[in-house]
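G., the chain you wanted modeled:
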Amino acid sequence: MGLDNALAISVSGVTAERTHMELISSNIANINTTRSLSGGPYRRKEAVFGEKPISFDHELATAENKLNGGVEVKDIVEDKTAFNKVYNPTHPDADSQGFVKMPNVDMSKEMVDMVYASKLYEADITVYNATKKMMTDTLQIQ
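Predicted structure as tokens:
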């Protein structure tokens, strides 16, 4: 595997983690949304990651040497956990008993996920910079 492939793999990780952080931000922004386009409360969204092949040559190398081609967000799925019920009879979306269905977003879980995603993002940037330095150092060999 060449250094250019290493750069591409790092970039794929940065892109995937950026998407992950955008989903987390969306979840936090909609933590109190009781009306969504689908009709009910907002449902928490999660990213599903998968291996990303870079090219046919890389696919061939993967088959022969078990090399990975990077990562990508394969799908964005909705969390199917139950909605939280909060007693608030004055809320416009309250049912006949005074309970409001709130989104299934947990702020502490979102914050943990955000820290985790940001650390992975930083790690991908560090790998990218180290690879770039190796490429620069290689060009300076006399």
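The chain has one domain: 3-32+44-80+106-139.

Shout if anything looks off.
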